[in-house]
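Second opinion, please. Pick holes in both lines of this record:
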Amino acid sequence: MNEIVREYAAGLFTLAEDEGIGEELLAETGAVSPLFTRDYRRLLSDPELPKTERLRLLGEAFEGRVHPYLFNFLRLMTERGLADEIPACFREYEELWCAANHILKVKAESAVELSPDQRKRLEERLAARVGQKVAVTYSVNPSLIAGMRLFYDNRQLDDTVRRRLSDIAERLAGASV
């Protein structure tokens, strides 16, 4: 993560927290982040397109649709030629918000889609295990065959059939006959 991203995200986060809208901006950055595709960021950074036109396009897309602080942030990033860094700033903002609110981010990868009840039970067990609130992002990976992998706090917990089969294969390969 570069220093520019850290500084701009920290500035937005500090302003949002001071104004009591940290969670609101977290939701909004999450909602608009997918809109900042490579092509859109390239358009907002295109030196061939006058800055006034780039800012007009940004205004048409976001002004009045997001919190004014977030719109001003997007405008500032675009004015300064930093539109390419917007998604990274949103990710850093989320990291700052989670740290300030003692929330552990967890990625859960399962072989099949989990039901809402399974997700709730997993989140409750994880929170109890780590002793803090958790925010889980779920994905499906059929190659796991069955089971789940969890990634958090530079750790990986792997309870998948794929890993178990791999362990068996390693033991068999090392066994003498």
About this structure: Helices lie at 3-19, 22-32, 38-45, 51-62, 68-79, 86-100, 116-130, 161-174. The radius of gyration is 21 Å. The chain has eight helices and four strands. Residues 106 and 136 are 5 Å apart (CA to CA).
